[in-house]
Structure formats: structure tokens, C-alpha cells
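Provenance

Sequences were taken from public entries as deposited. Structures were produced by running a predictor on each sequence independently, with no templates supplied. The record for Crotonase from Clostridium diolis is shown for reference.
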Amino acid sequence: MSDRCMVGPTRFEEYSEKYKDFFIMTRRNGIIEVRFHTNGGPFQFDWPGQTAYGNVWSDIGRDPENEVMILTGTGDLWQIGNPEVWKTKFMDWPRNRKLEMYHESLRMIENMIYCIDIPTIGAINGTGSHWQLGTFCDITICAEGTEFFDAHYIGGIPPGDGIVLTFQNLLGIKRAAFYAYTGMDINAQEALNLGMVSEVLPREKLLSRAWELAEMIMQAPRSARHLTHSILSRPWKKALVSDQGFQLTRQLYDMSIDEEGVLERLIKIKGRFQGNER
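Predicted structure for Crotonase:
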């Protein structure tokens, strides 16, 4: 028998500190709440944040003391999209950085779906970018006033970051195409009617309801929780294998030949990403 020690998972105290600039984590009785933020306010998306996403799911998923995960944002916005991250045109990025971008964009989604083996609850606290992460959760609830949209196409970019994948699997191919081309908003009530979310609540009651649902889920045996999540997350796993790499590649290819760059186009619709156009 080998004398080598087993390499165990990273402890909560370590990874909660490691990612503290991006995610505030609390855990109680097996329920971990992951709240993304920037300086205590709404999360402002940037490239270090995207890298952190891909890594944090792995650490959370490997910790056996995590039994249910609640994912939410800070304040009245889910995330703030920042067009300034595209100040350097993608076609001018170094070749290796483009490859890193491809992998990090995939890991942001894939590691959440593949590495998290426990029930998940997305508590979408407001409008913002990358809301697909909340809808990838087993249960998704949102705050009143939340609006969902995909502005890639109206910003001159093929939609490949996972939002259209969400539309296609939740709304169907015709509605997905309509919302992808038009960039039109889906308000909270419409999202409920369309099956994108399961409940719409006043923002002040959103998180307490998420914890209530998490505590209800915790009543079942551990094996039932884990294997039920495996059943419920399988459609997303199949969708990612079938389509996400294909969609992301089309987006990044177009950006790599775009001599104009996306910054000017995105600035025109900047308010939408920052929740200022309601």
C-alpha cells in the first residue's frame, strides 16, 4: 500500500478567501451562498472575473461539505457588463491570449455544469449580463423588475456565450431566434410565463426564499439530493456537449476578423448592460 497521503479538496476557509474579490461566500448547515460582487457592489465583469468563474466552480464542487448552492448577485443588478474590456480589438489580441479566452469562456459555463454535483438555486436579483449562469441552476427565481436580453447581435457580434443556448433550450428555436436577432427584453413576468424562471418575488424577499427552498431540498437524503441534481442537470450537459463549443467558436471567429472592433458598438447600448435602460 502506498505511503503517499491523499490529496483532499480545498477547504471552504481557503477558497472563500481566495475568491473574496469576486465572490462573497457564506455557508450554513451545508448550504453555500455564493454572491458575486465588485467592491461590495454589483459585480463588474472583466477578464480576471471570467477566469475566477471557471476556477471557483471546481473548488466549490470538490468540497463535500457543500450540499446545496445558492448563486446570487449584489444590490439591484445581477452583473454590470463593461464594454471597456474590449478596448483592444480582439483581432489584435496575442494568439495565445485568444486561445485562453476560448477556454476561459467555456470553463465559465462548463465547470459550473460539470463540476457542481449538488442542487443549485439561482436567485437573480436584477438585470445584468451573463444571466445564463442563473438559469443553468436547477431552480431559478428572480426579483421583480429583472429583464433578460441578449444584446450580442444588435452589438454586431454573433451570440455564442451561452445566452442563446439558454434561449434555445428554454424557449424553443423560434423564440430563441427572435430574441437573438431583436435583442428585445423579456421582463420578469414574461420570463415566468415562458418558463425561464419559477418564481418572481420582491427583491427584498428573494434571498430568504432561496434559503427556504435550499432548506427544503436539504430534507432529502444526501444520495437523493446528488442524484436528483444529476438527473435535472443532464439536459444542460447534453446541450453543452452538442452546441456550446460550436456557438462560442462562431462568436470568437467573427470577432477575430472584425477590423472595426466591438467597443464602439457596445458603448451605444452600454446602458442596457448596466441596468440604466429599463
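The longest strand covers residues 23-28.
The radius of gyration is 19 Å.
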